[in-house]
Structures are given as structure tokens and as C-alpha cells.
Design a protein that fits this description.
Elements lengths: L2 H8 L8 H14 L3 E5 L5 H13 L3 E7 L9 H8 L5 E6 L3 H9 L7 E6 L5 H12 L2 E9 L10 H5 L9 H5 L2 H13 L1 E7 L4 E6 L2
Parallel strand pairs: 1-2, 1-4, 2-3, 4-5
Antiparallel strand pairs: 5-7, 6-7
Length: 213
């Protein structure tokens, strides 16, 4: 049994990445020979162990993944999933007290600066974090590296969490509430940064872009 299949069998009841999305991501990693991976947002770590499993099955590679410090308190958490699959050597979790943007700053200013082949971006969908986060991730991607954006059509007004907690939108204007902020980054920032749009996957809300160079 492959490590990928082990993750599928063991964690079928854990959100959020399902087998079909993981299989698509695996095909992208394989096609572009991406082995040094950055992930923004892991929740309980299912997507992380899927990526770790892909790298294990490929025989090389490393994932650095970032989420808030509160992710430690989830049950099971990313460490439980890593231990269950024996993927500790493939995955390095990093925990942010407030925002993943500060962790990205730390990585950018570390010596030597890490450089990644691909970033799977699934965190902090408001414009401030998404827009700034994309700019910071760009500084960590190699020329020719890939950016996979999740939730391309997410909006605050359409979010189940924000609809249940409408007070969380009080500080935002109507147009910002309704804006598809990840798509704004796709349409506005990526061309400015010199990225080529490779493909959208509307059924799952993904967009894949490539850094020129």
C-alpha cells in the first residue's frame, strides 16, 4: 500500500482535503517535479500528511506548513496525524501566534532563505492577509515555481462562518464583504508579479499559476 493510500484509509473522516483533490495535487507535483513544498493553512493537518505522503512515495522532498498556534489544540492535531503515518521526516509544522504573514517574514529573513517549488495556499482569505501573503510567498518561490490558490470564489458574505457570526463583518464595507478576495489576488496581483495563469479548476475552486523565470 502506498503512503498516499494509507492517508486516505486512515483519515477519511477528517476535514478538509479529500482524496480527489489530493490526487489532483499529486499530479501537479509529479508533472512539475515539485519536491520543496510550502503550505499556508493546515487546520488538523490532513492536507499536510497527504502532501507528505506524496513526497514519501516519490522518495524525496520536504513540506513546510503554517497555521495558527491554536491548531495545536485540535483533536487530532497535525502531530497526531504525522505520527500515525510516520511522516515526521517529511513535514515541518510552523505555528503563528497571530498571522502566517509574520512566519513568512521570518522565513524570508532567515539565512539561508528557503526556496520552494510550489505553495499550496489555503489560509486567511480576507484581502489584507491574502494579498500580502501572496506577495510574501512570491519571495520564497523559485523562478518557475507554482502557486496553487484554494477557495478562488470565497467571499465573506458567502462564508458560512461569517453568516452565522455577522458581527465579524461589521468593520467591512459592503463591497469588501461581497468581494472574492482570493480571485482578486489571482486577477490583480499575480499578473503584476509576473505570473502566468496555468489553469483554473472551477469545480473545486482552485487556480494554478506559475512564476516566470
Amino acid at each position: 500500500m502506498s503512503t498516499f493510500d494509507l492517508v486516505t484509509r486512515t483519515f477519511s473522516d477528517i476535514p478538509y482535503m479529500d482524496e480527489s483533490r489530493a490526487a489532483l495535487l499529486r499530479s501537479i507535483l509529479r508533472e512539475y517535479e515539485a519536491r520543496e513544498i510550502l503550505e499556508i493553512g493546515f487546520y488538523q493537518g490532513k492536507s499536510s500528511v497527504y502532501i507528505g505522503a506524496m513526497l514519501e512515495d516519490f522518495g524525496s522532498g520536504r513540506l513546510v506548513t503554517i497555521d495558527k498556534a491554536t491548531a495545536r489544540d485540535r483533536s487530532p492535531n497535525i502531530f497526531d496525524l504525522m505520527k500515525s503515518t510516520g511522516l515526521e521526516r517529511r513535514i515541518t509544522p510552523r505555528f503563528a501566534e497571530r498571522s502566517y504573514t509574520w512566519e513568512l517574514q521570518r522565513m524570508i529573513n532567515s539565512q539561508p532563505r528557503p526556496q520552494f517549488d510550489l505553495c499550496y495556499f489555503d489560509g486567511g482569505h480576507q484581502w489584507d492577509r491574502t494579498g500580502f501573503g501572496v506577495v510574501l510567498v512570491d519571495m520564497l518561490l523559485k523562478p518557475g515555481g507554482l502557486l496553487v490558490l484554494d477557495d478562488m470564489n470565497w467571499s465573506m458574505a458567502g462564508s458560512a462562518y461569517h453568516r452565522k457570526n455577522p458581527e465579524t463583518m461589521n468593520a467591512y464595507s459592503e463591497d469588501e464583504r461581497s468581494a472574492k478576495t482570493v480571485r482578486l489576488a489571482w486577477d490583480t496581483l499575480l499578473p503584476h508579479l509576473g505570473y502566468s495563469h496555468i489553469r483554473e479548476y472551477p469545480a473545486i475552486g482552485w487556480g494554478v499559476a506559475r512564476k516566470n523565470g
